[in-house]
């Protein structure tokens, strides 16, 4: 039986859910197809959301109306702010999840969303036809229909593909090799053939996961305990408070004996004996990778993370591996606290098809086939948050195009999602890409604390926020404006406030507006507002965001000016023989990156991950001097 939809999304993982929800929120008749209903919000690897660079993406997804932030607030069992002692640009939230609670939360959002139908099925392929343009020219490729194994043909106006690790997935554990999308799931091979038949270039990538250990066989008494934050800072602007019981994590580590076992098993490792040919994630490497690459290190930390309130499983973060089962057993036995540990499932690696993201527009539409979008792991990324960010952008753009509206394109200067998509489509990947704060050259502007104020206006313009989300943003924005006004108009007086200043050891010589007083590193705005009996009128996001803006006013202004200057220099050519070694003040690491990438213009250099506006300015000044000479 043939049916129809405006938008069809393949894959119920983090990318697929955000894509389908965005399409449906924009009012389109949307179908989400996935191999199993259990796929919705399934965490294939570690049960955690957020982390450095990833926490920022999660908050951006939330500010764009997505579900990831709300779901982790409902399913989190340990929330922490990473880098809390460092500067605001590199602070990031991370939460350990109860897998089942997280999945149930995502499923709840999907099943209650208007305009959205979920189908448990396999997509076998898609059809295209020629498209007559207004000027009588013909585009040969526009998506028209999708074929499902059980539900037959569905005609569509747009298609988003988010198949993760499933296309021609091959799993490796030592000498054992089998086909699968991830452990326990079949691969999706027919769709891979369909993509090839439409001329989409595919290449292979690899990722891996560690064993899962039975909690009641671990000796926690030998391990270092790690608690989460109290109070908890929720991910979503829609969550007021999280009061659920929080679970601790435990720390252990590898040791000399473990490293010897790994070295002795090198010939049996699919990574090193040629069995796995594709590249894995450099920044989330397997334990065998770490032992061989950092051979001088005698130990690597392992975080033992509980998988949920009612789960007897623990995820040993840090020992992802594809070594044979018997070697994995020996390794685990030799780790402190795990001497008698029993394994529920052994670690493995998966190789899968990915597309070349350089063949995508910034909207994530495929350049050669209209109406075809890609998001998530298939675009060469690794990680739930990266997948969710792309999914939202792909789904929103597919819908906005059908509606004849302006696309959603986030720039590098306004979001981490923009940084990621720009990196993917301009540089492509040769190993799974994961986000870090160092990839964002404007990270001081892209802080977690100002996400709502940066992103919600864009989301509202596109129509992505529901009424309650819009109201929440408007409320927070008016708090922000009010507090800014108070900080500008209220004076901290050396006479009127003398007693309080003394009690708090603030040495103040002249009275000054609160906004200037807060610039001092020893002043915390929340404490001042407490003293003024104003704290309860403002959300903590608002207070932290404004405090950061006051404290870093000079830097932020300079960064804005740099962005403007760099924009103007974008087309300036860099000669092939440009000598980066002669640039004084440029970090060695950045020199190496530039020498390797050989950018042809300032615009190209700008897109190399980690290249800062300051570095670009140095190059531009040198080019100008050389021209003048
Ligand atoms: P997925 O979450 O993989 O979802 C893909 C979905 O597509 C599935 O639901 C599947 O059923 C569906 N699907 C596929 N083909 C079809 C079809 N033809 N028809 C219908 N449905 C289809 N990330 C990290 O950050 N760190 C790690 O260490 C890490 N290790 C990993 C290890 C393993 C073994 C795996 C499998 C993943 C790992 N990841 C890791 C990656 C993380 O799980 C993914 O990046 C993230 O889940 C990708 O989300 P996605 O939505 O793109 O795809």
Please explain how this structure is put together.
- It is a single chain.
- The N and C termini lie far apart (73 Å).
- The longest helix is centred in the last third of the chain and has 23 residues, at 467-489.
- Helices cover 35% and strands 19% of the residues.
- It is an alpha+beta fold.
- It contains 20 helices and 22 strands.
- The chain is globular.
Write the layout of secondary structure elements.
Blueprint: E1 3-10, H1 14-25, E2 30-34, E3 48-50, H2 54-63, H3 68-75, E4 76-82, E5 92-97, H4 99-111, E6 116-120, E7 123-132, E8 138-148, E9 152-161, E10 170-173, E11 176-179, H5 190-197, E12 202-209, E13 212-214, E14 224-226, E15 249-253, H6 256-264, H7 287-293, E16 301-306, E17 313-317, H8 325-333, E18 343-345, E19 348-355, E20 372-374, H9 384-402, H10 416-427, H11 451-462, H12 467-489, E21 491-492, H13 498-503, E22 512-513, H14 514-517, H15 525-531, H16 540-551, H17 553-569, H18 588-597, H19 602-606, H20 613-628
Parallel strand pairs: 1-2, 1-9, 2-6, 9-20
Antiparallel strand pairs: 3-5, 4-5, 7-8, 8-9, 10-11, 10-19, 12-19, 13-17, 13-18, 14-15, 15-16, 16-17, 21-22
The structure holds flavin-adenine dinucleotide (FAD).
Shape: globular
Bound molecules: flavin-adenine dinucleotide
Approximately what portion of the residues adopt beta-strand conformation?
15-25%
Amino-to-carboxy terminus distance: 73 Å
